[in-house]
Amino acid sequence: MNSHSLQKMKVLILLLSVTFIHAEHRGRDYEKSKVCKEFANLGKDNFQSLSFVLYSKKFSRGTFEEIKALVDEVVSLTEECCDVNAAPDCYDRRTTELSSKSCEHDAPFPKHPDTHKCCAQEGLERKLCMAALVHPPQEFPTYKESSNEEICESFRKNPRDFAEKFLHKFSSSYGQAPLPLLVSYTKNYLSMVSTCCASSDITACFAKETFQNKYLTLLTILSDRVCSAFTIYGMEKTRFSYIVKFSQKAPAANLEDVIKVAESMTNVLSKCCDSIMEDCMSKEITEYTVSACEHLSDKEKEFKNCCGEKNPLDIFLCTYSMPAAQPIKLPDIVKPTNEEICNTENTNAIDRYTYEISRRNPYIPEVFITKVHSLSKEVLSECCKAVEPQACLKSQRPLARSEITSFLAKAEELCGDYSQLTFTEFKKRLTQHFKTNFPKANSKNIKDMVENRTDFAFKCCQMNSPPLYCGPRIDAETKNFCSHDSCLLTSRTK
């Protein structure tokens, strides 16, 4: 990373503290001097642009007006307090005023459901609480590219307004991408717009620039997708989700190879999603694709085809987008013993059981399997902590197993056809299904049911379905799958 890029990353990180954090006295002066130095080096315009990226990423549900209000406040604070003639208490006073203003009911800044909890605190605790607030990932990006003509018309009308609105839209839509990627992409994009809108051949210019930046674009968007799931799932569930996915994509692969690739991918995300190193994601993805191709390309034809791509990013996109493989004939699953379930030192038995279930159910998306795994693991963990673990497991395991079977059957019903049929065929089959099951329903009701189920399938029956969005919808679609009175799993989803 060159010194200028590293400088930008430092200032972005420091911006978080400028907004709300009031460090202890000795650290506060150091913090202020660092911010002021970077503000002077970058200049007001660059500082403001980088603030838009950071706060749009942090508060991805905030409107443009809310983000702009926060950015303007931070830039004003920094500009005033970094002036050589600023009062000694300027920094403390302005940050305190900012945190107080954020607690007003009509505050112009981004809203957060936990703001009131922070406002119930005082002083440093309030500022630290405010600084920790962040919106959940945008699992369905809202940014849409306009036509070249529309872009240039808007840019020529007001270049600054165009730039600020673009920074907000793109950074909030793809806010889970690592900060250095967002900064690089948005900077390149605005440079492209400035160049091409002054070109005699706008179409040719945009085509050329877009092609030259295609890998940066691809890396930014893919990083947002995988880091979004990592943010929601955390380390352990992410590892588990990749065991499920790779078991479904390469069912002939052995567990050891699947785990190596799953852990390799999880480590990439752990290292890079919050990294300020500019080349972290591209470097780590290159190493990951080597591992994936080494362990899985000879186990599945589609993997081998992907590994034939020349660029690591093309390999990554190919393997990420790869659907589940066709089912293969496999022996019956060997269930883990009670002792293996309660052995906290060795998770291999649980990994193996997950792997065996996943590769036998390729048309059940990972979000379903991860959900039922988490619930059943919670039930079994409670047994392992009981006074008599064996007795608890003896009574609860059969019930949990029965519910898992019913849940997976329901998941197969919801998603199996979607995975195997064309979209048109899927809707036709759904229409017939609802007509058969609801003979008294009128055509409008049937159409509504078909549209609702189709929307569910389109968003939640994919290999890489968004967990935050799909969790509640899966709950709604599977709420009646349990056939006995005291349901172990469904009682935990409420």
From TrEMBL:
Superkingdom of the source species: Eukaryota
PROSITE patterns from the UniProt entry: ALBUMIN_2 (PS51438)
Function in brief: Involved in vitamin D transport and storage, scavenging of extracellular G-actin, enhancement of the chemotactic activity of C5 alpha for neutrophils in inflammation and macrophage activation.
UniProt keyword list: Actin-binding, Disulfide bond, Repeat, Secreted, Signal, Transport, Vitamin D
Assembly and oligomerization: Associates with membrane-bound immunoglobulin on the surface of B-lymphocytes and with IgG Fc receptor on the membranes of T-lymphocytes. Interacts with LRP2; the interaction is required for renal uptake of GC in complex with 25-hydroxyvitamin D3.
GO biological process, one term: response to nutrient levels
Lineage of origin: Eukaryota, Metazoa, Chordata, Craniata, Vertebrata
Name this protein carries in UniProt: Vitamin D-binding protein
MF annotations from Gene Ontology: actin binding; vitamin D binding; vitamin transmembrane transporter activity
Gene Ontology CC: one annotated term: extracellular space
Signal sequence residues: 1-23
Subcellular location field: Secreted
Domain Albumin: 23-213, 214-402
